[in-house]
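User: Could you go from structure to sequence for me? I need the amino acid at each position, not a summary. Structure tokens:
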């Protein structure tokens, strides 16, 4: 309990700091085109590291990853790496480390990325101070990890899934919405933080465990582990 309170105080302090401060945004607006091309990979591991800004992730890429990043300072220029080892591709898209310094000014750092639905994807998202929208419907997710600092976040896991997978969410300060499927099994292990949480269309099993109606007889299951921070979180079945 003391640990959660301490983390909550730190997160709240960060929220106050970022509400009045940002990366110095002087300079010409620039756009980086992101493309990680298809190769012989049979599975993909992708990590997104965003310090501050806005992040949108959607399905539908023709390549492994496609999109744009708009920024107004070279400190925000993204670093993109990709390696193929055997049949596994590993990609990291991250904000330039210089862009993590906090200065007075307005932030412009907008990430809009689309991901492949052709091969299994193990996705990790680390966001600092950002508003985040993640639509994963139709992808072949094999694992999901989201670590959110400050900002509102929406994660859409709705639709039909062919394979089971584990997902973990560590949430900081802000409003969180997680959309869950109705037709396949869902189990949530929830560790409650300082904020409030609501579970819509889910059945409480006690001890922070919630399931949907399809869970008991489901062959495909999303097992979601959550560590809730400060703010509100709603988990709803659609």
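Assistant: Here is the amino acid at each position, in order:
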């Amino acid at each position: 309990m003391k640990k959660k309170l301490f983390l909550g105080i730190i997160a709240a302090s960060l929220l106050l700091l970022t509400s009045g401060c940002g990366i110095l945004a002087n300079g010409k607006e620039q756009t980086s085109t992101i493309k990680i091309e298809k190769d012989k990979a049979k599975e993909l591991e992708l990590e997104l590291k965003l310090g501050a800004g806005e992040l949108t992730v959607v399905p539908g890429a023709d390549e492994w990853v496609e999109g744009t990043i708009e920024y107004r300072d070279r400190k925000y220029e993204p670093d993109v790496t990709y390696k193929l080892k055997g049949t596994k591709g590993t990609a990291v898209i991250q904000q330039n480390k210089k862009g993590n310094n906090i200065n007075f000014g307005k932030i412009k750092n907008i990430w809009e990325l689309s991901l492949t639905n052709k091969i299994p994807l193990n996705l990790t998202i680390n966001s600092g101070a950002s508003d985040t929208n993640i639509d994963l419907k139709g992808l072949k997710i094999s694992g999901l990890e989201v670590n959110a600092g400050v900002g509102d976040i929406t994660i859409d896991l709705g639709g039909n899934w062919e394979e089971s997978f584990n997902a973990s969410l560590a949430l900081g300060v802000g409003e969180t919405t997680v959309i869950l499927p109705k037709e396949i099994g869902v189990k949530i292990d929830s560790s409650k933080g300082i904020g409030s949480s609501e579970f819509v269309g889910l059945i409480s099993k006690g001890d922070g465990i919630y399931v949907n109606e399809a869970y008991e007889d489901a062959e495909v299951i999303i097992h979601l582990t959550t560590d809730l921070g400060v703010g509100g979180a709603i988990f709803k079945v659609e």
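One structural detail worth keeping in mind: The CA atoms of residues 185 and 215 lie 4 Å apart.
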